Amino acid sequence: MSLNMNLSIAPLVALLAGILILVMPRLLNYIVALYLIITGLLGLFGGPGTFHVH
Q: Is pTM, for the whole model, over 0.85?
């Protein structure tokens, strides 16, 4: 009997960001800005696994 465990990065990042915001509320601006930048870049370039440079 084996146990398969799949970890997704999004919940881990969200948990870490939440803890950091609780500890240091001034980080909220930076965390939100980074999230928006990364989400925008992934939206423009098609997300993970589909980024191709020719």
A: no
